[in-house]
Write a structure and sequence with these properties.
The chain has helices at 28-36, 40-62, 65-82, 92-110, 133-152, 155-166, 171-178, 182-195. It is mainly α. Helix 3 (65-82) crosses helix 4, helix 4 (92-110) crosses helix 7 (171-178) and helix 6 crosses helix 8.
């Protein structure tokens, strides 16, 4: 139960892109406005649309699925608290990720050491050639190596990579989340890409 009586689903839904594919599908902004006006079902749809992405982002930033679960719940509690002061016009997705990112950074600062629980993550696996077990195994190991490399990045650079490549935020949206300029985002992303090396070829990850 939330602080206003709205129930946050225990299992977040899939990741949406926040756009209306048809006239019957409301945008993120329309859902947030509807929730602000008293439609609690609109909030449930926002959680279903972005909850999975928020939880996945938090898991990879803090390296602890249990802590990420707390951050996921707290993120949407903060959304509820902030909605009365929210004004339309900006990206709802970056608004939500800004809250999640700040909670992640707070969690990292509170810990005396960073957990690197890579084995508990569920990295996406790039499929190999159909019917080629060896190719599939190489692709799987490459995906796991990339996941480990991302987790090992400094938090600020890890967040840029995750927001850009995993969650498809634009440079401007990432800048809003991190509270920096577009150029700083590009600089951090460039630096992170230099740190991420392909274990097979030893070259920067493409």
């Amino acid at each position: 139960m939330t602080r206003t009586g709205t129930v946050i689903p225990i299992r977040p839904g899939g990741v949406g892109d926040g756009t209306a594919g048809a006239t019957s599908v409301p945008t993120d902004e329309e859902l947030l406005i509807a929730f602000r006006d008293g439609d609690e079902g609109a909030f449930d749809r926002l959680v279903e649309r972005h909850g999975g992405a928020v939880k996945g982002f938090a898991t990879r930033v803090v390296g602890d699925p249990h802590l990420a679960e707390d951050i996921f719940v707290e993120t949407f509690l903060r959304v509820i608290e902030t909605v009365p002061r929210w004004r339309p016009g900006g990206s709802v997705r970056s608004f939500v990720f800004t809250i999640a990112y700040r909670l992640c950074m707070d969690a990292c600062r509170r810990r005396t050491r960073h957990l690197r629980a890579v084995d508990r993550l569920d990295p996406p696996v790039t499929p190999g050639v159909l019917g080629d077990p060896e190719g599939t195994a190489v692709a799987s190991e490459r995906a796991r190596a990339l996941e480990r490399a991302i987790v090992a990045l400094p938090e600020a650079h890890r967040a840029v990579v995750l927001l850009t490549y995993r969650h498809d935020l634009t440079a401007r949206e990432v800048a809003e989340v991190l509270g920096c300029g577009d150029q700083e985002v590009r600089s951090r992303l460039s630096y992170a890409r230099r740190l991420l090396r392909d274990p097979v070829h030893g070259t920067p990850w493409s």
